[in-house]
Amino acid sequence: MLRLIAVFVAILAAMTGAVAQDYPTRPVSIVVPFAAGGPTDTLARNLAQHMSKTLKQQVIVDNRAGAGGTLGVGIVAKSKPDGYQILLHHIGMSTAPALYRKLPFNPLTDFEYIGQVADVPMTLIARTGLPPDNYKDFVAYVKANKDKLNLGNAGLGAASHLCGLLFMSRIEANIQTIPYNGTGPAMSALMGNQIDLMCDQTTNTTGAIQSGRVKVFGVTTKKRVPALQYVPTLQEQGLKDFEVAVWHGLYAAKGTPKPVLDKLNAALVAAIKDPQFKESLAKLGAEAVTPDRATPESLAKHLKAEIDKWGPIIKKAGVYAD
Fold it and tell me: CA-CA distance, 209 to 211, in Å (whole number)?
């Protein structure tokens, strides 16, 4: 009996290996756990286009928004581990364990890691009708009108939510926050003068800033963004040691065969090396990672470090969801 079991296992392994070697034989979908039109969606569509070249199959974006991004993540965690449904997620993958009491997945045990993709700075923006025209006046205005203002975000745990919380904490002015089902809807509300403020990724704000559809008061990273070189950083303007950048990673369901993961990683590495991909991100204020970061090992290490970093901060703030 043991011999028969061993033979069966060997045959199954051989069949799995053969299937993996042929991968992909049909389109691959990148699940984005946020609404279409947001920054992660924009990055995903650029990435999908370039990964398609290497995989020689169409790579499509599948938006699965809901529950602060946890819905889409949970879908991939429970998906068939064959590499045809993968996940692109940002910093929220590391903050979810502290934000949600009941999480339908474990970031550290329910996924295979493909690699990091890109880093995206954030910008502090406001509706065009807001009176201040510079950062100093803006801070004074927010403090004086904190009971009348509101700050939009893409939902609990989204990068825009975390950035907003950190900013309010640093200037000691707590204002009302309004969550939306994704950054796209939140940006539309801001440009429609339905909300006052927002802190969001350059992949979503650069075009609106350049066209004058929103006011900008600063960039959240230490260095200025090439696409917005005229916009000073918040640190330059006096908000010391304030730095928020959004990193993105690519994941597959636990148990996905290594040959499949290797092909996905090769497609990712080819994309981040592609001058056109780099240029497309640069126009949005984002930056593709270096090849040494586009590895499963690098993503696994970075995710664990980020979970350890954000967990205590979120718990201290007392922010959580059921």
Answer: 5
Nearest to 231 by CA among 219, 244, 222: 219
* pLDDT given at position 181: 82
Helical H segments across the chain, by residue range: 2-22, 39-55, 70-77, 92-99, 135-144, 159-171, 183-191, 202-210, 258-273, 275-282, 296-317
Domains of the chain by start residue, with CATH: 26-119+246-317 (3.40.190.150), 121-228 (3.40.190.10)
Distances (CA, A) of 173 to 16, 103, 118, 143, 166: 57, 31, 31, 6, 11
Tens digits of per-residue pLDDT, 182-197? 888 999 999 999 999 9
> How far is it, in rounded angstroms, from Cα 111 to Cα 51?
20
- Note the pLDDT of residue 68: 81
Is 50 exceeded by the pLDDT of residue 282? yes
- What is the token pair recorded at 21? 């070697």
CA pair distance 310, 262, nearest whole angstrom: 30
Q: Which of 33, 23, 127, 38 is nearest to 72 (CA)?
A: 33
The Cβ of residue 285 has, within 10 Å, a number of other Cβ atoms equal to 27
Please state the length of the chain.
322
Is 70:86 a contact under the CB 8 Å cutoff? no
User: 88-123: per-residue pLDDT in tens?
Assistant: 999 999 999 999 988 999 999 999 999 999 999 999
